[in-house]
Amino acid sequence: MSPIELPLNLSNKDVLNMLIKISERDDPVSFTAEEKQIVLMIISELKRGYVDPFLILDEWLKVEVLECFESSCVLKWQYLEDLKVLKSINSDLLSTFLLDHMKALLSDENSSYDFSYTLNNHAKLWVYEKLPPDVKAFLSEMISGLGSKTVLNTLSNAVLIGNFNWKYLLSIISVFIQQHQNSELLKGMVDEFSKNSLEEKNKTLLFSTLIIARHCCTEKARYFNNYPTWFSSLNLKNIAVFTFFFECLTQIVPDEPPLYLKIHVNKVPTVPASCRKYLTEYLTLCKTRLSDLNETTDYIGIFNDYYEKDEEGQEADVRRAMSIFQENQEIPKPLLEASVFRKQYYEKVFLRRLLSVPESSDSNRAELIKKLHSAGKISNTLFNRWVSLSKWFHL
Asked: Cα(4)–Cα(361) distance, rounded to whole angstroms?
């Protein structure tokens, strides 16, 4: 293709309008080669004083990239890939541009999420497996272009200043943590946040630390293992620190997902001798809240497996029980044991999940349900309710 001559009177607004027009097409096709060349020429000709290429693409970030985040649509042009190979843009300018991009994402105010919403939804919405493919690719390009230490410092500063968007902070962390060396860096950041928030009695930083730690554990990152291990290993070395920590946890009990209340009940950090009272009050509050939610205090499944999400663990229990039953048509021994020694969990959690599917949807599951009922391990009330559900779906 022959070079394209750009009009001398081209302005930021002209180019941005062109980009917006492209982004509003009904047919989500990529940029044409000509359109790419126009924009890349503008970016590369940095000495031309009448066009600010970074301003144009910073605006394009707001128009196109954030829209992709919000609606999981196709990102029409992964322009960061093209920018990295342009010889006319030196590494310093590219780093400045990428850093501006990351800061723009972190500080976006168009879609803000409060602490309570984030506490309950981060593991459902913003983990790596849930991010749109184009978003993951875009963030990967940004992270690789900036380097691990710059990304970590940018994330850390955003959290410490308190001016950040939870969605984009955690989305960036989810992509960043996929590399083992980055996981180690994040572990250091979280440890530092934890130490400083407790020593300075900084509630805002402590709450942010809890969410970031949980998010990293949900990603099953190398240096985070799982949340029960992280929580139980916290160093609450003296009365003041311990008291402050559990005062903060008490404050958020009404907003906590049940899984974390269960973990806190079962995996308590080392308690200073004179702090038993504070711990007992907190544990009582957790158990009361779980009872109100019709939940048990168990956080480990019937087969002694742990999952970072309640729903995953419950479904895994059912799948494992079904698999064993399918092999020999006998009720799995762990189910029989649980019906006696973990009766609350068995009835309130396992059976509720097992009986949520009508007979016509899974014949093998139906056979297990009937066998458990015959053995007296499912009450007539629950069994009849399941039968009614199955008939309703059959209609």
From this structure: 61
Kindly give, in sequence order, each residue whose CB lies less than 8 Å from that of residue 53, ignoring residues fewer than 6 positions away: 42, 43, 44, 45, 46
Q: For the chain, how many residues are written?
A: 395
Return the C-alpha torsion angle 80, 65, 36, 148, nearest 10. 0
pTM for this structure?
0.77
Residues 6+ apart with CB under 8 A from 234: 194, 245, 269
Tokens of 94: 């590219």
Distance of CA 259 to the CA centre of its chain: 15
30, 74 contact by CB (below 8 A): no
Distance (Å, rounded) from C-alpha 326 to C-alpha 337? 19
Contact 170, 215 (CB under 8 A): yes
SS (H, E, C) 34-91: HHHHHHHHHHHCCCCCCCCHHHHHHHHHHHHHHHHHHHCCCCCCCHHHHHHCCCCCCH
Rounded Cα gap, residues 71 and 350, in angstroms: 35
Q: What is the dihedral of CA 312, 318, 324, 328, to 10 degrees?
A: -160
Angle subtended by helix axes 12-23 and 33-44, to nearest 10: 150
Measure the CA–CA gap between 142 and 151, rounded to whole angstroms. Answer: 9
Angle made by CA atoms 284, 202, 234, in degrees to the nearest 5: 55
**Other Cβ atoms closer than 10 A to 171:** 25
Per-residue pLDDT tens, the chain, 395 aa: give them: 344 444 444 555 555 555 555 445 444 445 566 656 655 555 555 434 444 555 555 555 555 566 666 665 555 556 666 666 555 556 776 787 788 888 888 987 766 788 999 999 999 999 999 998 888 888 998 898 899 999 999 999 999 998 899 999 999 999 999 988 899 999 999 999 999 999 999 999 999 999 999 999 999 888 887 899 999 999 898 899 999 999 999 999 999 999 999 999 999 998 888 888 889 999 999 999 999 998 899 988 888 888 877 788 889 999 999 999 988 889 999 999 999 999 988 988 899 999 988 877 888 888 999 999 999 999 999 988 888 887 765 54
Using CA atoms, how far apart are residues 82 and 77, in angstroms rounded to an integer? 9
Q: Which amino acid is at 348?
A: K
